[in-house]
Specification:
Low-confidence stretches: none
Radius of gyration: 17 Å
Number of domains: 2
CATH architecture of the largest domain: 3-Layer(aba) Sandwich
Distance between the termini: 63 Å
Shape: elongated
Structural class: alpha/beta
CATH class of the largest domain: Alpha Beta
Helix content: 10-25%
Largest sheet: 5 strands, mixed
Number of helices: 6
Length: 185
């Protein structure tokens, strides 16, 4: 019996969620029946909130699209500094004025970003659930070092901080969200 598989290619920070052998290369992933692309994204360990553009066989699709054996799937992260207005976005409104909420583990980062005139909400007493609610209600991007937090239901924007020291974290955020011009003001 022929094995049903789809081919995946992940871009930029989405590669952080898969093993090194699957990063920045096409890889095969088994499928059963005709799963939705959202089900497959989750099965890869990628929080759907981190995905902003899905191309299947070169066509832009949403999370409900059903995958067939042999499909070639490209997953792209949330675009904050790159215009993708000519293709189907997975969210109805892109964030234009960047505002962040930072979890309790990244307090120093929050303080430094604030000193650079970047809108950052930091309340260390907030639980993960309250962070998600606050992010949604005030349209903030969650900055976290916790992969688990990014998998919480209801997250629309989030970013996993990979830097291990404060200088790396600041540079990572400034570059990722194209904030160098704002930080210089």
């Amino acid at each position: 019996m022929k094995k049903n598989t789809a081919w995946f290619r992940l871009y930029e920070e989405l590669n952080d969620f898969v093993p090194p052998a699957k990063r920045k290369v096409w890889f095969e992933h088994p499928i059963e029946d005709s799963p939705s692309i959202e089900e497959l994204v989750i099965s890869l360990g990628i929080p759907p909130a981190q995905v902003d553009l899905i191309l299947i066989n070169g066509q832009s699709v949403d999370f409900s699209h059903r995958v067939k054996s042999g499909d070639r799937i490209s997953l792209y992260p949330v675009f904050e500094s790159f215009d993708i207005s000519t293709v189907s976005r997975l969210r109805s409104k892109p964030l234009r004025e960047l505002a962040f909420i930072v979890d309790a583990q990244l307090g120093q980062l929050a303080s430094c970003l604030r000193s650079l005139n970047i809108d950052v909400l930091y309340q260390p007493e907030l639980t993960e659930e309250l962070i998600v609610m606050a992010a949604r209600s005030s349209r903030r991007i969650i900055l976290t070092s916790s992969r688990e937090l990014l998998h919480k239901e209801g997250i629309t924007r989030g970013y996993l901080i990979k830097g291990t020291n404060l200088d790396e974290q600041i540079q990572e955020v400034l570059l990722r969200f194209d904030l160098l011009p704002k930080a210089g003001k």
